[in-house]
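To illustrate the input format used throughout this study, we show a single complete record. The first block contains the structure-token representation of the backbone; no residue identities are included at this stage. The design step must infer an amino acid for every position from geometry alone.
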């Protein structure tokens, strides 16, 4: 698909990287009884009343169909120590949660153990936006972990932590 923009797409991507973001992992039911995960840095709040959040997924992702079909999902906000988990679930390849330290949730998809916060969500809607889809979830339950820790952040193509 051609773009009619007046700038180079690579420059656009690099400029977007100038905005530091937190990092989260979204989990949902996969094929059969398994669960899958994906790393996102597009997580944000939408509304307090009702409690809505959103995250985005590339529609070309092999995980897109599973997440688009999921009635609910869990979002785990990552701590600085979750870098290897984030990297594992960020790109093509391994999407399984096998071997990762997980915590059960009431709604089904597990949370990552030791995450800073967990949002258990019912899918509210999915909106197409260019090559991505915006997934909006209604937050049904939250868990905040008391453990102190710095969040994992992403800035200019690199992982970092707030100190």
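Output of the design step:
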């Amino acid at each position: 698909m051609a773009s009619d923009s007046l700038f180079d797409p690579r420059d656009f991507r690099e400029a977007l990287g100038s905005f530091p973001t937190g990092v989260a992992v979204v989990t949902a039911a996969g094929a059969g009884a398994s669960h899958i995960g994906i790393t996102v840095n597009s997580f944000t709040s939408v509304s307090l009343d009702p409690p809505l959040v959103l995250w985005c997924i590339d529609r070309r992702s092999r995980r897109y169909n599973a997440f688009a079909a999921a009635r609910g999902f869990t979002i785990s906000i990552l701590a600085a120590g979750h870098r290897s988990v984030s990297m594992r679930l960020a790109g093509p390849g391994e999407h399984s949660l096998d071997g990762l330290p997980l915590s059960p949730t009431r709604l089904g998809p597990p949370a990552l153990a030791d995450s800073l916060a967990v949002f258990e969500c019912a899918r509210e809607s999915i909106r197409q936006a260019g090559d991505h889809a915006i997934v909006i979830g209604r937050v049904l339950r939250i868990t905040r972990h008391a453990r102190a820790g710095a969040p994992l952040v992403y800035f200019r193509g690199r992982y970092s932590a707030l100190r």
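Structural context for interpreting the output: The helical segments are 9-16, 64-69, 83-90. Residues 9-153 form a domain with the Pnp Oxidase; Chain A fold (CATH 2.30.110.10).
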